[in-house]
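Running this now, will post back.
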Amino acid sequence: MKTVNLNKIILSFKGESIKDSDNEDITFKDVMLSHLGLFMSKSGKDMIMAVEVGRKIYDKKDTIDLEEAEFEILKRSLESPKMTALAVGPVLKELEKV
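Update: finished.
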């Protein structure tokens, strides 16, 4: 099991929180869900797992425990960034610590 932090806020270079279009802070959870939702693979099994991991993350607030295979799908989704380095970089850095 790997415990992943979901509620950290994405910060700008100035150290200020980055906001979404609703003026809400963007969190690690937001970045993860965006990438899992856009994840693409030739493997149907991987696509299903990405959806299942996304659903598990969506239902949690602060942290989540992921099995090794779930954790790997999360990392793979983030390694094909759909957002800027400022959003994805801190999340990947945090996952390296897990």
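The beta strands are 2-5, 63-66. More later if anyone needs it.
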